[in-house]
Amino acid sequence: MNDLSLETPEAHDDLDGVPPPPATLTLSGHENEWRELVAAGASGRLHHAWLFQGPRGIGKATTAFAFARHLLAGPRPDEPEAVPPVFSPDEATVRQIAFGTHPNLIHVARPPVEKGTGFRTQITVDEVRKLNRFFHATASGSNWRIALIDPADDMNRSAANALLKILEEPPPRSLFLITNHTPGRLLPTIRSRCRLLQFKPLDEESLAATLAHCLPSADAEEIRAAAKIAEGSVREAISLIAHGGIEIRSTLDQLLQADRPDWNAIHSLADALTLKGRESAYELLVAALLSAIAEASETCLRVGDGEGAAALASLWQDETTRLREAAAYNLDRKQALLTLFDGFYHRRARHRAA
Fold first, then answer.
1. What pLDDT digit, counting tens, does each position of 11-56 carry?
2. How far is it between the farthest Cα atoms of the chain?
3. Partners of 51 in the beta sheet?
4. Which of 138, 143, 208, 280 lies deepest, with the highest CB count within 10 Å?
5. How many whole angstroms separate alpha carbon 165 and alpha carbon 180?
6. pTM to 2 decimals?
7. Do the Cβ atoms of 144 and 159 come closer than 8 Å?
8. CB 75 within 8 A of CB 81
């Protein structure tokens, strides 16, 4: 199979050595979601806007690009529709979508920075305004014009309002495929104009099979370990394998199981993961610690400790916001990490004392 990812436009969330969603020609899991999309497309009454909602990295964008290929390639009366779908890299439509050159598809995502390398932290209103020019152009081929917004979470307020205006009066034969990781970060008015398609995390078996396909040189035991702790996310599992995340999770578990915080070990871990070039490993540790806080909150809830559950949930919310702001303003990452650890230990100690 030709490696389409070699010519795919760079995106802010690409993973080294792994084909991005526009160039991923296989779909793992989500069979029911795929059947619903195909049935809607065949009905002749396809809703103009679909909201693909679920955790980050489980295949929402991959499914969206697959459905765009399905629609733009046109009907295949002599070939039964496969589940999961099968696409050939030799097909013109497949290659155009992978290379970002199909005239009937636009991918709205965080744009590159104007100077230097890297990407902006938000989808700006200028990116959404490109849709006006796109939809006013004459469609070709199947006549579908498809806008893929990925993810809606990255839109700033102005961009979200601009998208809402288009959704309120959608152009003829237009289709919006919108991915969304966190429901609370989407305008309710946008959500109300979309047909919701809920995506669940992949099961361990499907995730392990996907990892074996994406990372053929990875060790089988490492794949199993990543699939077990990645919470159904392909992106999370690949990051765990690529950036030493399995070892990081093991170290974190040991730290959190101790009765008292081992600040020497925590400082050493923070020093190692805040070095230049270890940004991905740092993000894995932060995500794992936030996940531990969420799990602790759920444990309190299960045993009837509503006050403890609320305190930990509040900590999770506050720290998530603080860490996002720290990243946006390029604040000291080690201090941000130490504050996160301190908040967790402080809440846990207060809960145990009570």
1. 888 887 788 999 999 888 899 999 999 999 999 899 999 999 999 9
2. 69
3. 178, 196
4. 208
5. 18
6. 0.80
7. no
8. no
